[in-house]
């Protein structure tokens, strides 16, 4: 199937007409669909609902910035920045292109308003917080945009558009359903892998894949009676995420049992809410992945508890899990519902 993607091209207009034309040309050359604000009145607040609806339907968002902040809304934010913030909030892949400050640029295309100049500086900082490209002229922008879009499509393929005649049989529907169900997990994994240090990428990738693809079913008791315990099912990734924070220093096997139960049950029996054999299996699984190891701290002879702590790899995996969820606002499945039965 040949997919076509919609790419929203956002920028100030009057000062970047030729540059926008180059980007639109690049989109068309690659066989995709450019969407720009030429068709709207960018300074008309009444048009914002239409603009937002267009952004809702796109596959990729491209932001081009030079030396103007552009017309502003009643709140004092430019329409360009408002579009950018909306696309980011919607989780749409963003392609950022900021002009190289060393490149020559006509004086009449610079921002003159002092207040807007300050807003432009802050806007550029916001864009630069993500992976971007710096461009020198329209030809340079054309080439860098084409490469960036190809990489984005490869790394993060979107829904796109296909001809109805190309959709044949139930196979496509089944595949789309499968991809949709896996989308959130894959995005999290991708972000973790990108951020992982080069020396740990292979190990982190392997650990995350195994944690995410393995589930455990177990019971948590709220009283001393096991026949009243409720069943729960969750992935090893969630189990690791629940237990790991208290394993940075060290924790006992009983503490691991309590930490997992605390995240899943409103109330739990404090003395081994999850069976000792089940917890031992969970710990053994994480140790097999080199995420846990016996604690190296010394304890009194009378202390017969087993103590565990995160390995260097375990700390790296935990750090990447938490960083991605904080930065991207991805909600973990921290409160799965108990299964019936």
Describe the fold and architecture.
The protein has 341 residues and is an alpha/beta fold. The chain has 2 domains: 6-155, Rossmann fold (3-Layer(aba) Sandwich), CATH 3.40.50; 201-328, Orthogonal Bundle (Arc Repressor Mutant, subunit A). 46% of the residues lie in helices and 13% in strands. It contains 11 helices and 10 strands. The strands form 3 sheets. The chain has a 5-stranded parallel sheet, with helices on both faces. Helix 6 (169-195) crosses helix 7 and helix 9 (253-264) crosses helix 10 (276-288). The longest helix is centred in the middle third of the chain and has 27 residues, at 169-195. The model has no long low-confidence stretch (mean pLDDT 85).
Give a topology summary.
Elements: E1 6-10, H1 17-29, E2 33-36, H2 48-57, E3 60-65, H3 79-89, E4 94-99, H4 114-128, E5 132-135, H5 138-155, H6 169-195, H7 201-213, E6 215-220, E7 230-235, H8 236-243, E8 251-252, H9 253-264, H10 276-288, E9 292-294, E10 307-310, H11 312-328
Parallel strand pairs: 1-2, 1-3, 3-4, 4-5
Antiparallel strand pairs: 6-7, 8-10, 9-10
Helix pairs in contact: 1-5, 6-7, 6-11, 7-8, 9-10
């Amino acid at each position: 199937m040949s997919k076509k993607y919609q790419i929203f091209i956002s920028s100030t207009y009057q000062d970047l007409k030729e540059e926008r034309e180059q980007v639109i040309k690049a989109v068309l050359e690659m066989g995709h669909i450019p969407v720009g604000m030429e068709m709207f009145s960018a300074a008309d607040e009444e048009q914002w609902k239409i603009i937002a609806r267009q952004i809702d339907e796109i596959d990729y968002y491209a932001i081009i910035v030079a030396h103007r902040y552009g017309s502003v809304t009643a709140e004092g934010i430019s329409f360009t920045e408002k579009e950018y913030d909306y696309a980011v909030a919607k989780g749409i892949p963003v392609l950022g292109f900021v002009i190289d400050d060393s490149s020559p640029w006509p004086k009449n295309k610079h921002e003159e308003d002092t207040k807007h100049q300050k807003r432009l500086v802050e806007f550029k900082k916001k864009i630069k917080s993500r992976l971007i490209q710096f461009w020198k002229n329209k030809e340079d922008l054309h080439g860098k945009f084409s490469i960036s879009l190809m990489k984005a499509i490869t790394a993060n393929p979107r829904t796109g558009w296909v001809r109805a005649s190309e959709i044949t049989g139930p196979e496509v529907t089944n595949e789309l359903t499968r991809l949709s169900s896996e989308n959130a997990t894959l995005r999290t994994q991708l972000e973790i892998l990108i951020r992982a240090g080069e020396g740990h990428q292979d190990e982190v990738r392997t650990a995350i894949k195994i944690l995410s693809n393995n589930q455990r079913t177990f019971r948590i008791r709220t009283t001393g009676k096991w026949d009243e315990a409720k069943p729960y099912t969750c992935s090893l990734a969630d189990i690791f995420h629940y237990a790991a924070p208290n394993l940075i220093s060290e924790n006992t096997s009983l503490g691991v049992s309590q930490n997992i139960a605390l995240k899943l049950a409103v109330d739990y029996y404090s003395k081994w809410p999850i069976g000792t054999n089940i917890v031992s299996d969970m710990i053994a699984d994480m140790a097999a992945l080199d995420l846990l190891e016996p604690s190296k701290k010394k304890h009194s002879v009378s202390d017969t508890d087993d103590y565990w702590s995160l390995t260097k790899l375990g700390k790296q995996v935990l750090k990447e899990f938490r960083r991605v969820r904080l930065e991207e606002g991805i909600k973990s499945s921290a409160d799965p519902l108990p299964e019936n039965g």
